[in-house]
Fold these 4 entries.
Entry 1:
Amino acid sequence: MSSLPIVSITRRETFSSCHRLHSPFLSDEENKKLYGKCNNPNGHGHNYVVLVTVKGPVDPQTGMVMNVHDLKQYMQSAIMEPLDHKNLDQDVAYFKTVVSTTENLAIFIWDQLQKVMAKPNLLHEVKILETEKNHVVYRGGNTYPRKKFNSSNLHSSHHDVSSDSD
């Protein structure tokens, strides 16, 4: 039996969303200092570009790793419907307890794609271009334990957050 060639396919979509970078684990003063203008109480918006890459063997019968039409449908369901023209912090349940950084947005998109894909093992990478200068890449997996929101942890002395400022 011969091995099959491995190929990557990437599809690009764009969506617009707004959010406010604000951690419930920090005081208002700490949030303003850490996130700067991205902590504006009225939020701010982005025209996000998201690139989803699937990777796998080329099926000798179809000549495809995945039907691009299927990938388009998965992205519509996992990205466009829940995120496009939404306030991430108010309209997406996940971000009610998770800071809406681009890093966390990439994790959310990965998790959503995993739920809708017929073959989630083909998902290789989620890349988000938040601005012309800032890009985030997520390839799945949990290397570090994730801290869940707990009101008793508010204003603790150790914080693992990152900014998406310009």
Note: The first strand starts at residue 6 and ends at 19.
Entry 2:
Amino acid sequence: MFFAKLGSSFGVLLILVHLADGFKNQTTARFLVEEEDALLTVPQLIRKYGYQVQEHQVETPDGYLLGMYRIIPRRPSRKHPVFMMHSLFSSCSDWVLIGRQHGLAYLLSNLGYDVWMGNARGTRYSRKHKLLSTKNPTFWDFSFHEIGFYDVTSLIDYVLDQTAASKLHYVGFSQGAMTAFVALSSRPEYNDKIIQLHALSPAVYMYRSLSSFLRLLSVSYRQLAQVFIKAGQYEIIPNFEQQYFLFRWLCPAPAQTLCRSVIYDIVGANPDQLDVRMLRIFFGHFPAGASLKQVGHYAQIIRDGLFRQVDYEDPVLNRAAYGGYGEVPRYNLSQVTAPVRTYFGYNDNTVNYLNVLQLEQEVPNVIGSYPVPDKRFSHIDFILANSVREVLYEEIVRNIEGSDGRNYH
């Protein structure tokens, strides 16, 4: 609520600022996008750039109603569907924001793939529940475990049911990749539904993170959580109507000093690849919301170096949640038998490449490990880099094309 009220109070001033800039028709030098894209929803973006989109709602076993968007391929084919899952604090805008000539979802759709983009509970497009309001603290009582265990599996089943396919291609970035490992290790029957898991900077192990901000979060989360709980807030930085204008005011171009300083610490600095206007557009869509408990779960895996379920840090609570002596279960990565391809950057401050290499040693069926050739490639570059199509997405597309055996049923 704080960010929403702050953004609203600056709204009139900032609208005048963007009108003075000739807001609507300015495009980036690299990407075929416009500044107004910051204010559009994902379905509006897809339609604007000439693609057909369907809006779906998927119910999870615990009652969450998830938004999922389907890009109808321009050239229908019998290729297997592609399911895509986004990163922490983000949404499926990850896959379309940089426009029709570069966005991975568009590249796949252009080749005839039926592209489905999921949104995790609590994010901008998945803020509904059969019984609970977002004002109810119980709505926010989830971590990335529930996203993997319930959301990912429900979304996979829905795609397969709607398309009558027996398997799909899975593409996940950061949390979207990590929650696939949660799903496949906790519910191993889903391995048979995945042709290949394309794990882009998978946030499974994060304890080697070079980010000062993330390290500080990992040790100070308890104090931060108490502040939020006392204020009755169980959601962290949701998407709000005026956020584009707020971030534009906080981080004026061309230097964007405050925003870039924070971003470079968290994700790694690669300034030549981060377009000024593209970053502004990005802040119209990011952040998109997360739960306090979810962020706390991240703080634990950064601090403890263990890929496991939530540690309630109280023997009584742990016993109630997990039974027995209250030992916190670790995710058994040996159960992830689907073919896995990893993609990583050497300058990724969020998910250090050594953490990805560790993951590869613990997963039994890694069939590809791709270091992005740009040695300065950072975490945010996986979705926003000027050269992301050439250095990464074309490799992913080749791998998907090479693995799609067309045995649809």
Note: Residues 235 and 291 are 4 Å apart (CA to CA).
Entry 3:
Amino acid sequence: MMAKPKVKEEFLKNHEEFNAFVNKLPQNGPNVYFLFSGSKKENGRSWCIYCQMAEPVIKAFLDELKRNVVFAYVDVGDRDYWKDRACPFRTDSRTKLLVIPTIIKWKGVQRLEGSQCTKRDLLQMLFEEDD
């Protein structure tokens, strides 16, 4: 019996963890997606209101996704760290983040930014198989 396709979730706390994770990715593994959002406060919610709005939509979408993919949640840090123009997530040529939340497909050009991350139809398009 074939195993059911499923989403493997990863949680990365900062740019160092993001870097280490990316450097260990296999050449021909499953598609990898990254959600970049503001770090969580003590109450378990991101300081970024748009990240708070996007998270339940994304989680519900992933729960229904029947695909073998890796989905990594990446904290970009607290507000002051993120707002700094020198923030590594902004300057890293692989991410070049302008806003959070942002979802990128690794080794792809597609990305969803800001309120796009709350739209199921756009999530669907981002996760479509590359036939």
Note: The longest helix spans residues 49-64.
Entry 4:
Amino acid sequence: MDLLDSILNSMQKPPTASEAQKSALKKQKEALERKQKDEKNRLKKFRQQVEEKIGEFIKDGNKPSLQFEPMEQTYRSIIRDVAETAGLQIFSFGQDGIDRYSVVYTKERGPSEDELSVRRSGGVWSEDKAAEMALQHIEMKKQAALNIEEERNRKRKHGKEQLSGTFYKQKYAHLIGEDAALDAAHKTNMNKTYGEVPSENKKDSRSIEQTMADIRAKKLKKAENKEATENNHQID
């Protein structure tokens, strides 16, 4: 064996293909484990931050809500878990994957219908928005009251309120049938001219002498009829 052979034999042989693959897989596994560990620590730290924020929110007692920034579903689920564990209400708004965010409320003071409507439509809720919505409700109530008063005035103008045929039909159609209810409705409509006599026609325009003469004539006629009746009985 010469010097060259001795040198070649002393050198380390290159790793086989299987050993290279094993080494690569091992490195990938170690990298994945480090990544998972980092993510676990990050979520744990985030949960601690959420617990601190919610704890401060509960202690304050004056804030109506606690809003978080838009974030992924994984982080929102942690907020929900912490809030529900603390006995609070939580709602999420916005489009998932884009701008969905969570808002926490106390158990006693949840969101109003106005707030839910604004947030669900993509709007921003604030004290100014709440005041604006309150004014809108006041104006709507005023308008509704005016509409009711106008309707009452219209009915007064057209006479006393009465049971209309349409109402009668709607009320009894399911009991006696559509046609029968409609016929009954027509029959129950009040005749406004019935029983209405002008006051001038009710006055007795006769004089006292004429009235007395008419009374005596009626009595005389009644007596004559009575006498005729008695005569007829005697003849029989």
Note: Residues 190-194 have pLDDT under 50 and may be disordered.
